Every structure is written in structure tokens, then in C-alpha cells.
Amino acid sequence: MESERAHIVLRVLHLTQEDRQTLPRALMNLEGVCNVTVDVVSGVVRVDGAATDVELMRALRALGKEAVVVTHTRGPYGASPRAHSSSSAGLRAQLFLKLLRKNMNCCS
After folding, report:
1. 60: buried, middle or exposed (CB in 10 Å: 19+, 13-18, 0-12)?
2. Where is the HMA domain (predicted)?
């Protein structure tokens, strides 16, 4: 497990209202996880902490959930709550900036 804190956004399929309690409980049991939020309507799970994508995906699979990593930001600014909006517009903006950065790295 990495010691640096990260902010990981996952898209999880078929979330239920019950998952609002079960997913945070299961993910908080992983070493290094500091905070978990679940948005059932959008299917988005946000995790702050030092757990890896692999550890998170394994824990979700153990609960019968399929997920994909949307964003993974590591480092001192990655886990800043101010840098991440909980709205869908904020998530779209994050994805756009991520794609823009990839495009700039590709063409430079």
C-alpha cells in the first residue's frame, strides 16, 4: 500500500440505498482509508486515503459490486476536499481537465 494520500473516484454499477452504509463500512476497513462517500443516484464512490485502486476494487468485488476508476489523484493536493466538487458538474470538469492534460502530454 502507498503511504501518500490519494483521492479516488469510482463509478460503481447498481448501487442501492443499502450501499450507502455497507460500502463505506467495508472500504473504511482497508488500511489507510480516511473517508468514503457514496452517491447512489450517480453511482459515484469517492475515497480519500492511502489505499490502492487494486485494494478498493478487490473490496468492492467481495461485496458483489463492479466498479471502474474514474479519477485517481495522489499527493498533497490530491486529497484536498476543496479541490473536488461533489456535484456532477464538478466531476465532469475533473474529467475534462484530465482528458485535456492527456492531450497536452500526447502532443508535446
Report:
1. buried
2. 25-66
